[in-house]
Write a structure and sequence with these properties.
73 residues
Length: 73
Amino acid sequence: KIEANGESFVGTFALTMKGITKNIRLPFSFINEGENAIFKGSTTINRRDWQVGGGTIGMSDNVEVSIVLNVKK
């Protein structure tokens, strides 16, 4: 699902890691550059929701996920 949010967008996507699927909301921008387009966004997830890293004390539970997608029209 993708919704307009002013001049940017917010997508709701299913993220699967280690066999666990959860929905995340990912704000992103769309940049039109002639023959190319760029989708760029980031969000923060809790790694423990996907059982990543176990009980590692030195690792933050919150992890930023960033995506840059370059496409040719």
